[in-house]
Amino acid sequence: MTPNLTYVIVIGVLVAAGVTLLLERSLTRVLMGVILLGNGANLLLLTGGRAGGPPIVGTTPQEEMSDPLPQAMILTAIVITLGMTAFLLALAYRSWHLNGHDEVQDDVEDRRIMDLAERDEVPDDDVDGDDDDDDETEAGAERTLAGTVDSGRAG
Amino acid sequence: MTHLVPLPVVMPLLGAALTLLLLGRPRAQRWVSLTVLTATVGVAAALLVKSSVDGPLVVEVGGWAAPLGIVLVADQLAALMLVVSAAVTLCVLVYSIGQGMADGNEETPLSVYHPTYLVLTAGVCNAFLSGDLFNLYVGFEILLVASYVLLTLGSTETRIRAGTTYVVVSLLSSVIFLVAIGLVYASTGTLNLAQLVDRLDALPDDLRLLLQGMLLLAFGIKAAVFPLSAWLPDSYPTAPAPVTAVFAGLLTKVGVYAIIRTETLLFPGGRTATLLLVTAVLTMVVGILGAVAQSDIKRLLSFTLISHIGYMLFGVGLTSALGLSAAIFYVVHHITIQTTLFLAAGLVERRGGSTTMDRLGGLARLSPLLAILFFVPALNLAGIPPFSGFLGKLGLVQAGIDDGGVLAWILVAGGLLTSLLTLYAVARVWNLAFWRAPHPEMPDSDEAAQAARVEGAVQPQQPLPNGHSGAVLPKLMIAPTVALVVFGLVLTVVAGPLFELSTDAADDLLRRTPYVDAVFPGGTP
Hints:
The complex is a heterodimer.
Chain A: H1 5-22, H2 27-47, H3 68-99, H4 108-120, H5 127-154
Helix pairs in contact in A: 1-2, 2-3, 3-5
Chain B: H1 7-21, H2 26-54, E1 57-60, E2 71-74, H3 76-103, H4 113-129, H5 133-151, H6 157-188, H7 193-201, H8 205-223, H9 231-235, H10 241-266, H11 273-292, H12 297-318, H13 321-352, H14 363-366, H15 368-382, H16 388-403, H17 406-435, H18 446-455, H19 475-493, H20 495-511, H21 513-519
Antiparallel strand pairs in B: 1-2
Helix pairs in contact in B: 1-2, 1-4, 2-3, 3-4, 3-10, 3-13, 3-19, 4-5, 5-6, 5-10, 6-8, 7-21, 8-10, 10-12, 10-13, 11-12, 11-17, 12-13, 12-16, 12-17, 13-15, 13-16, 13-19, 13-20, 15-17, 15-19, 16-17
Main location (chain B): membrane
Domain NADH:quinone oxidoreductase/Mrp antiporter transmembrane (chain B): 130-417
Protein name (chain B): Cation antiporter NADH dehydrogenase subunit
């Protein structure tokens, strides 16, 4: 179909929101981002073909038929996105089961570098930073506890 | 003969269905998987012979004629990739069966392992054979979804953590690929690769560059090209040894294959040659510097994997026949060698109880066979003459010198530096894990290591179920590793004919007409 402005704006908003969510730490939000991005891409595919009547011989004259190929591709892409959504949900659930949260964690190397950086810091300089750390540890402990209790209940 | 073309995709898929039905009957599952993959190797070899003699083989799936239906095309490049990847997957399958029989199903392979592994093979074969951009996407998705499952097998904490990053990054690259496909279809009205050749040539230059850039970005993430490679060393080493080995051998190479295919067939003329060459040198040097800094063998090997992807891009970026044929030769060499090294690392982990070099030592004396299995492919990877790694790098350097540009010379220098640093990295593994005196905590005989495994003192951290020996180096794990080491040596011996084959493939790729004529014998519609 001829791309009209509404269409383009909708695709733009979907992709922008998707990318923003993809940059979040929580896997559930990342999943939302993936879904939005996928829908944006599907709409984009749809704009690639001619619009018109149902492409069935006998119901529509050949010149007025819509292009069925993008629709077939979108169907395939939707099925793939569906499967991925289920898999990511399972991953998030498992992560919550194990860690009490579903946040995407730092790379091993990043953590090593952060440890090194922390060791280099002069302790007196960073009193506030230490406090933050303590809070986080406590919060983390609470979450882990909550996770254990819940998983116990589930089990 | 053309009826053979879909078999490398169809057979593993049927095998996957059959092994799913046989859940809970591991013996039957093993036989099905082995039979299917052995047959795939045979079919792939037949395709290679046939396509070298008669030119590309084309099948219109379901009997629908070319631009409307989907075509599978087995030209020399695709057939060569099929042969090597099928042989490697077969060896890794035997290795994982050996590991499973020694340790029980606690770690790997779980009952779902066989179906997933076969689906992965089908996806890889589909990507190689595809003559249609959307079918290529489907091939990628099949192999990626299977790889998500394999990477998070057992869903332990580290695997979930690593799997999350891997899945999200792969999903992003798939979306970029899908958007690129949408744009290609919108601007040309077709996705058939052979038909795209003419239609893309007719597009305005800036639009073509946009499409080319998006496809390169999507494939670049999958191939782990430098700025897009950070996901790889984080995720691969956490998976079970056979899974890491097959990922390292195949998945990134499918990305490289897609880059070669699109850069030569769809977008010739080398408009992104400078970009490719710059990323190639960065991939090589940054990757190998990462490897030098590692203290864990699996992580170190993951970084060498990234680094050596740079060599293949180097050959593609030169856009000369020699460069391209050297790149194809290098892909074949690297699939074999990198997989072998990861399998050897898996054996080191079993024998020494760890892959951290600080906790290893003296393996050369404790287990001479294991030492040889690591040493030969390690030297091969570093490019010591007369191994195939040396011949591949020689071809690339020769092509770089022939090119003569400033950038090409920088790449030649970067390539040699990377080769040297690779030697340093693997020599460090050799010195620390194999050559120095044994670490005091290490079991000093195979029997002691076996006893430690049975009691659960090392992984899998719990006593093994009854009926499993916990043998440290079972024959079924040693044999495929030996087979792959020998295969690597055979590549060296038959390097002459193999280089001729890759030169033929490169010529066909650069001429483009053999591919197009095979798909449309009566001229492009």
